[in-house]
Every structure is written in C-alpha cells, then in structure tokens.
Design brief:
Oligomer: heterotrimer
Strand order of the largest sheet of chain C: 2-1-3-4-8-7-10-9
Shape of chain B: globular
Number of domains of chain C: 1
CATH class of chain C: Alpha Beta
Strand content of chain B: 15-25%
Shape of chain C: globular
CATH class of the largest domain in chain B: Alpha Beta
Helix content of chain C: 25-40%
Radius of gyration of chain C: 19 Å
Distance between the termini of chain B: 52 Å
Chains: A alpha/beta (about 180), B alpha/beta (about 375), C alpha/beta (about 280)
CATH architecture of the largest domain in chain B: 3-Layer(aba) Sandwich
Helix content of chain B: 25-40%
Mean pLDDT of chain C: 96
Low-confidence stretches of chain B: none
Strand content of chain C: 15-25%
CATH superfamily of the largest domain in chain B: Thiamin diphosphate (ThDP)-binding fold, Pyr/PP domains
Low-confidence stretches of chain C: none
Number of strands of chain B: 15
Radius of gyration of chain B: 21 Å
Number of helices of chain C: 10
Number of helices of chain B: 13
CATH superfamily of chain C: Thiamin diphosphate (ThDP)-binding fold, Pyr/PP domains
Chain lengths: ~180, ~375, ~280
C-alpha cells in the first residue's frame, strides 16, 4: 500500500529532519520502501518549509506526493497552504497551539478528515524542556496515529539521525509524542 | 561490509565516487549539485584524497584534468551554468583523451533559470557543447541507488575509453532520499601504466579498439607531451596537416562509435506485446513506469524503454523498439532534445510523439496516461 | 640542448625572440639549484611562451588559453612530489587567466610560474595586452592604447605569493638566480620576465630590431631598491616609463598542497594517496 505523507511548518522547526527520520525508519529499519523529498529555496529559511515521504511495501515509482493520505501541520500558514491537497477521509495531524482551528472546521467536516491534535511544541517545551525537539515529539504522534512506520524502527532511525549526546532527550521526546492521545 | 544508507542522490554520488577510486575533486559550489562537493569535502580526506574548491568551473575542470594526469581518478560536479563554463576544457579532455567524470545535476534553464528545480535541458549541450567533432559518454540515473551505481560505472567507462564521462543527473534525483546499498566491493577499472620503455612508447597510439590503453602518470619518466593541438601518436603538435587532424579526430569518434554496443545500456519493460512504447531517461522514468503500470491495469498494451546512456545514443535498441511498437512516446523534462534522436532512428517504423515538460516538476503519471489514451483514441 | 626534444626542432620562435634566453636562464637556475629535469613537469596555456614546454624533455601539459595555472593546481595536488613549472605570457596569465593567477597566489600553492611579459599578443599577430604600456600601438589599438597596464608583479604580491621577482631579458644572470630561488621556494613563485617581441611589438612601436628592443630595456630597467628610494623621496615621476626589476617578495608561508596532504593524514592517518588510478583495489 502506497502512503503519501506531507509534513509542513516553518523553517527552523525541524520539519525536514522529521521527514528524513520517517523515511529512514521505513526503508532501513522496517524493510519497506520510502522516498523523501523536500522544499528548497528561500522558503526553507523562516518561511514555509515542507517535506514529503512516500512509503510503500512495493517499489515506489512516482516519487512525489500529489494528494497526501496524511498531512502534518506545525504552523497555521503551512496548514492553510497545503490543506487543500489532502485526500478525502485523510488524516490531518495538527499542533493545536500553532493553529487557529476555526478556519479549518468546515473543511474537516466537508471532506471527512480524521483530525488529530498533537501538542508537540508545548510538550517539547514543558516536558522535555527543549522547544527544538517538537519535531521529534510530532514523529511520536505520527507513529502512533498512522502506524505507517513501527515504533522500534522510528526509535532506531532517531538514534541514527540526531547529534551524538542528544539521544536521550530525543528518545524522551519521541516517547512523549507516542504516548499522546490525539 | 555492505552498508545501507538513506541518503540524497547527491550523497550517493559522493559515496559512489569514493568507492570507484576517485581521490580528487575540484569544483565550485552550485545549486542543485553542491551536496556532492560538500560530501566529498568530508569523505575525500578520510580516504587519503584531495578536495579543492576552485575559483570557478573553468578552473575546476582544469584542475581535474591536471589531477588525472598526475595519476588520480578525478571528478567535478556542477549544474547548467557551470557546465556551460566547462565546455572548452571538456573539448580539451576529449582531444587529450583524459579520463575524468563530470556530474551535471540539471536545473531549469537557460541562464540562471531555476536553481532549485529539475530539468533535462543540458542533454544536447552534453552532446555538442564543446566546439568540434567528438563523441561523449553520458549516463543518466533515475534513482538514488542508480546515482551511486552509475557514478562507479562512469569512472570505469572513463578509464576504459579514455574520455570524460558525464553523469546526466537532475535536481529530483540529486535531492531526493532513498535507500542505497553500498556493496563491500565494486568492480573498478584500474588505469594501465605502459609496458614499453619511454623511448618506444607512443602515448596516443591506439592499442585496442581504437583506444590508447596505456597512460603513464606524470613523473614516471615517459616525458609525455599533452596538447590540445592536433597531435600525432607521440603527442607532438601537427596542427596544419589535414591528414593528421582527420586521423586523430576520426579515431576519437570511432573509439566511442565503434564500441557503442559495449557502452550503451537500456532496460525495457512490458515491450514484447506493446503497441505503444515510451522512451525516457533520468527522473521522468519514475513517472513513466507509474504511467505504464496504470495503463497495464486498464489492459492497455504499453511498455517502456529506459535509456541509461543517452550518449552514445542507443541506436540499435531504439530501432528494435520501433519495429515492435506503432507509436513511441518520448518523455523528457525539456521542450525537445533526445526526442530528435528518437525521431532520427525510429521515424520510418513508428510514429514518434513527445510530451514536453519544463518548469521544474516531473510529468504526472496521469499526464502520460492521457497521452497514451489520446494515441489509442480512447 | 640535452634538455630539449631534438625530434621537435627547429622551434617556432621568431629570430630575436626572448624565449630562448629565458629558457636558457631557466635551465641554469634549475642546475644551480641541483634539480634534475626528471623531477619537473611543465604546464602552459596558449601563446608563444606557452609553446616552450613542448620543446623540453619532460612531462608537459599544453592546455587551454589562460587556464594553465588551474591545470597545474590539479597536477600539483594530485602528486605533490612533482616540481610543477608553468610557462605563461601576459595575455595568458594576466588577461584571460587573471583570476586563476590571483587565486593560485592566494593559496600559495607550490608552483613556479615564469611569466614572459612581452606586452603584446604575438601568436595572433600583435594585439595589445593588459600589460601594453599606455600609448603603445597594436593591431587592436591602432591609435595607441589608452588603458592602464597591470603591474603584474605587484598584483601577484598583493594576492599573496611568497616569491616574486621581475627581470628583463638583458639580465639573464639575475633571472636564473631568481628562477633558482623560485624553484626552491615551497610556495607560489612568480618570475616575471619583460621580454622582447621584435616581430610585433617592436615593428609597431619604433623598436624595429631586437637590438633596439633590448637597448630600450637597458635604458629603462631600474632596480627595485633605487625605485623604492625615488618613491620615498617623492620623485615618483622619474619612474614613468621605467621597468622596475628585482625581488618584490621572498617570504615563506603555509603552502596549499601541504595543507591538503596534512588534512588527509589527519583524517585517515595515512599518507596522501598518489597515482591511485592504477590500483585495482582501494580501501574504502
């Protein structure tokens, strides 16, 4: 089954690393296929930043995401920019503290979107004490909600991707996200 | 030990270069190829190699040619604007039969164009970019694994045929991440030192299949004179002799053309019973294979040919395709480059169609499928 | 003669050309430094001076116009044991190759660059160059050039070279002594030789014979120490039309190919790879 995931936010939130970790988890540790792509150019600094991952147990031919099955929004601007592409009945995961939900209520209803709230930024700040691990908290939430990658694979992918010395905090962040109920 | 990595195409290329024995990189930063330089800046010193950031692309390829004659496998990477600047020295590498590898990660063009968007607009520049008659080798990867594999192959071909080999990549393959498997050992083609004494040795005398197989590194006592002027087999200039020029340049072309079948690589899928065959290369193959799957799901007899070596053009393979199919559809990210080659070869036996694409995005599989249906009048 | 490729003679240089004198001075400098020609590899670009390496019995790269120094950079870094000498001219080094010249000086890469400055494009028939004196005539400046010429030696000093000297062809002894020092200097060495092109510069600029040209060098050459004193005394005007000769800098500093080798030694614990293209197996 081909699954298309798009994670979007603003530059500096670690959105792209989140995409790499999920792709790595799928392809190196779950033994299925993954392609990760990302936005380039001026928008990668400060403005909207996005990464896309295609995951499949079959060979991935077309590598780009057209209509994601899963959209993860870490900023309101990114959500508004990309929400329209989401498949009907698709999964939408938002960081509620970053988003004004009144603007999306109609869309969610109309397209039967499965909406999940993951307080990634708040959890990172309050529970881990490090705002910059919000992306890893979000990966935990994505893993639990979507099951596109396994818990163990993501853990290994995180350890393989984060700077040495930061492993504990990042795993803690991942577990906090995984334990969250959207 | 076999290694598995989840990396960008550009990173895979850097790993492929190291594995192929490349120990010198000279380059200049340019989007979307820069990661190749950045990764080699890390990897080369760890393998006893040299990384040199040059002042521009002209000097980058100059340094690479110099390093090659010092006895190193050497490469540079760039994108359209830098590739344009390299053209004169590519001709020099051709006439002096210098093995080296140039990676062109193509982006939207002409001029500065679209630095962060993909294109395949340099295909004819690879063929004809430098002045004069010559035959290039260009290979085009369509996955991250192929970017690794084809980099190794590029070095091997450059040594076997003593030519600069171009890797015709693009922004999509350069920047996307996929899993690659790096085998413990890859087959590499070592350069051959001459067996004769310096007195008896002719550095530009073809010894096999039009190729002068032996290259003495500088400093080995062979006193080689390497010149961009028309030269004889000893390497001495002979620039006003029509005969000497014709002999040299004809051999340089024959070296590739008469060995074409050993160089070219294509892959076909679902072609045996196909009445429409799609011809493509590089990143668009990903859309083509998806479109062909969609078409087959609908019971349409469609196949595709994946051209791994745009140059030299796989003429025989395209002739065969034209005999099978009624229609050939060329899919490439430009307004028409390799399609002219396909037309040249196939137009007597099949109708050649073309789906152009510029702007930076891949063809969508649905676009290709609708062209198929248009041809089938569905 | 023992250093020349006898099978390539006679050479293409015009009667009275300075290239012969300079090549002799080069060999003398090389011998007095105790260097065997076997250790030397030559690189050149396009122009009359760039044809010199083709007559010398050593490995040589005769490259594209202006790019000799970039080819030499790859050759030197690829095999730092080679003693790499670049023969170039004013058009090759200062015009089309100006950027490579200043960057090589900045890197202080161990090359010896002999720049034969005849202030004209000789090979193509007498066009003005970036070192043609103001007012001099060339086919592309039929009314006399109004451009200010480069002071090449000063330029290369400013860019960071560690050895720079300028002489004319009437000072072959000083020239060979500077070439000796240049070959010995572990860094970027630039020896500028103001040379005569009687065929094109001379004919157009009322210096018809080689003797006239050489005479003008004799009249106009002034030693750098004297020139510096004139400047210090506020008599700069007296230097107009003069050729300042002597050493411009001789100061060692860290060298580029050493830095590259040391980095790889530091990162992999082994010697810098050389001639690795010939290996069928490499440790990853």
């Amino acid at each position: 089954m081909r699954k298309e995931i798009r994670i979007a936010g603003f530059g500096g939130q670690g959105v792209i690393l989140a995409g790499i970790i999920i792709g790595k988890a799928a392809s190196l540790f779950d033994g299925i296929n993954a392609v990760q792509t990302q936005s380039y150019g001026p928008e990668a600094r400060g403005g909207a930043s996005r990464t896309e991952i295609v995951i499949s147990d079959e060979e991935i031919q077309y590598p780009k995401v057209q209509n994601p099955d899963i959209l993860v929004a870490m900023s309101h601007e990114a959500l508004m920019k990309y929400m329209g592409d989401l498949k009907d009945e698709g999964i939408l995961i938002i960081d509620p503290d970053m988003i004004d939900e009144t603007e999306i209520a109609d869309f969610v209803k109309q397209h039967k979107i499965k909406l999940f709230r993951a307080k990634a930024t708040q959890t990172a700040q309050n529970d881990i004490g490090l705002r910059i691990v919000a992306n890893i908290v979000m990966i935990g939430a994505i893993t639990n909600i979507t099951k596109v990658v396994s818990y163990d694979a993501v853990k290994e992918a995180i350890l393989d991707s984060v700077p040495p010395g930061t492993e504990d905090k990042n795993i803690k962040a991942f577990e906090a996200g995984y334990a969250m109920d959207g | 030990m076999t290694k598995e990595l989840f990396v960008q195409g550009n990173e895979a290329c850097a790993h492929g270069a190291i594995k192929a024995g490349c120990r010198f990189f000279g380059g200049y930063p340019i989007t979307p190829s820069t990661e190749i330089a950045e990764d080699l800046a890390i990897l080369l010193p760890k393998h006893g190699g040299s990384f040199v950031q040059m002042e521009d692309e002209i000097s980058a390829i100059g340094a690479v040619i110099g390093a090659s004659w010092s006895g190193m496998k050497a490469m540079t990477s760039t994108s359209g604007p830098g590739f344009s600047l390299m053209q004169e020295n590519i001709g020099y590498a051709q006439i002096t039969e210098t093995p080296l590898v140039i990676v062109d990660v193509q982006r939207g063009s002409p001029s500065t164009g679209q630095p962060t968007m993909a294109a395949q607009g340099d295909m004819m520049q690879m063929r004809w970019g430098s002045h004069g008659d010559y035959e290039p080798i260009a290979i085009s990867p369509s996955s991250v694994q192929e970017f690794f594999d084809f980099t190794v192959e590029a070095f091997n071909l450059s040594e076997k045929y003593r030519v600069p080999v171009i890797i015709a990549a693009d922004e999509i393959i350069g920047h996307m991440r996929e899993k690659i498997i790096i085998p413990h050992e890859v087959e590499i083609t070592p350069r051959k030192m001459p067996k004769e004494t310096p007195e008896d040795f002719l550095p530009f005398k073809p010894t096999k299949n039009h190729i002068p197989e032996y290259i003495p590194a500088f400093g080995e006592g062979y006193n080689v004179h390497v010149t961009g002027l028309t030269h004889d087999e000893r390497g001495y200039p002979d620039a006003s002799s029509p005969k000497a020029h014709s002999k040299l340049v004809t051999r340089l072309c024959d070296k590739i053309l008469k060995n074409r079948e050993k160089i070219v690589a294509t892959e076909t899928k679902f072609c045996d019973d196909a009445d429409i065959i799609i011809a493509s290369y590089g990143a668009p193959i990903r859309s083509v294979s998806a479109a062909v799957s969609l078409a087959r799901d609908e019971g349409l007899k469609v196949g595709y040919i994946k051209i791994n070596t745009p140059w030299p053009f796989p003429e025989k393979q395209l002739e065969e395709i034209a005999e099978i199919a009624n229609d050939i559809v060329v899919v490439e990210m430009n307004l028409g480059q390799m399609v002219h080659e396909v037309e040249r070869i196939a137009k007597d036996n099949a109708k050649v169609h073309f789906i152009p694409k510029i702007g930076g995005n891949l063809h969508k599989p649905e676009e290709i499928l609708s062209k198929i249906k248009e041809i089938k009048k569905i | 003669m023992k250093y020349l490729r006898k099978d390539r003679l006679p050479n293409i240089f015009c009667p009275g050309c300075g290239n012969g004198t300079i090549l002799n001075s080069f060999f003398r400098g090389m011998e007095s430094e105790g260097i065997d020609l076997k250790e030397i590899a030559m690189v050149s670009g396009i122009g009359c001076s760039s044809r010199i390496p083709g007559y010398v019995k050593c490995d040589s790269l005769h490259t594209t116009h202006g790019r000799a120094i970039s080819f030499a950079t790859g050759l030197k870094v690829g095999n730092p044991d080679l003693n790499v000498v670049v023969f170039t001219g004013d058009g090759d080094a200062a015009s089309i190759g100006g950027n490579h010249l200043i960057h090589a000086a900045r890197r202080n890469i161990n090359l010896t660059v002999i720049c034969i400055n005849n202030t004209i494009y000789g090979m193509t028939g007498g066009q003005i160059s970036p070192t043609s004196p103001e007012g001099s005539i060339g086919t592309t400046a039929p009314y006399g050039t109004r451009d200010k010429p480069f002071n090449l030696s000063e330029l290369v000093v400013a860019a960071g070279a560690s050895y720079v000297a300028r002489w004319t062809t009437i000072q072959p002894l000083q020239l060979s002594n500077s070439i000796k020092k240049a070959l010995n200097n572990p860094g970027f060495s630039f020896v500028e030789v103001v040379s005569q092109c009687p065929t094109y510069f001379g004919r157009k600029n009322k210096l018809r014979t080689p003797v006239d040209m050489v005479k003008s060098f004799k009249e106009n050459a002034i030693n750098k120490r004297k020139a510096d004193k004139l400047i210090a005394d506020g008599k700069e005007d007296e230097l107009i039309g003069k050729i300042i000769v002597g050493e411009f800098i001789n100061k060692k500093r860290a060298e580029f190919s050493d830095n590259v080798c040391n980095l790889s030694k530091q990162q992999c614990g082994e010697e810098h790879a050389t001639k690795s293209a010939y290996l069928s197996k490499l440790e990853y």
